[in-house]
Amino acid sequence: MLKSELRIIYKGKRAALTKEEQAQFDEAVLAHFKTLDFSDARYVHVYLPIPAKIEPDTSKIIEWLKSTYPKLQIVLSKSDFGALKMNNYVLDDQTQIEQNSWGIPEPLNGIEIDADKIDAVIIPLLVCDKQGNRLGYGKGFYDRFLDDCRKDVLKIGLCYFEPIDHISDVRSEDVSLSHCVTTEKIHVF
């Protein structure tokens, strides 16, 4: 299927989830995520979910990462819509978070960090295919950001739905996932 068709389908599937289903799915994703090993990581980039888009919640993932790996630094992004890129900031006790005009929670302050220092990126997506091709919202922010990261960066998607067979219109600039954590398991690509 084409990305445009898949976006309609999977936005609809997310919208159909009840709050209870979403909470159950978040717990299942978290349980699988906890089996990943971040002991060699220094910086992990984590998205903050956009409430209106019903994205998998990352708050408990952030809590778990901070408590399990106390030396690990959590990195958040701030969107630059003029340049169509993401700037990255270390999350600390002084970090203030506010929703931008698009409803995206972002840090207002913090220490900026270069993308090539990041060891793993937790990525939102609507769905992926069995080859690890990710379907996002179509603006290419994560593709450009991941292109700036090291080649060995872990690219870990979080998704409520299992991978589909094939996304038919994958482009050369689309960056695929290394892993996708779903409610059922962790898929490794």
From TrEMBL:
Key word Nucleus present: no
Q: What is this protein called?
A: 5-formyltetrahydrofolate cyclo-ligase
InterPro entries (alphabetical): FTHF_cligase, FTHF_cligase-like_sf, NagB/RpiA_transferase-like
Protein's organism = Sphingobacterium hungaricum
Q: Write down the required cofactor(s).
A: Mg(2+)
The kind of enzyme this is, by top-level EC class, is ligase
The terms under GO molecular function for this entry are: 5-formyltetrahydrofolate cyclo-ligase activity; ATP binding; metal ion binding
Task: Kindly give the NCBIfam families that the UniProt entry links to this protein.
Answer: MTHFS_bact (TIGR02727)
**Can you tell me which family this protein belongs to?**
Belongs to the 5-formyltetrahydrofolate cyclo-ligase family.
> Is Nucleotide-binding a UniProt keyword of this protein?
yes
Question: Binding residues for substrate, per the UniProt record?
Answer: L48, E55
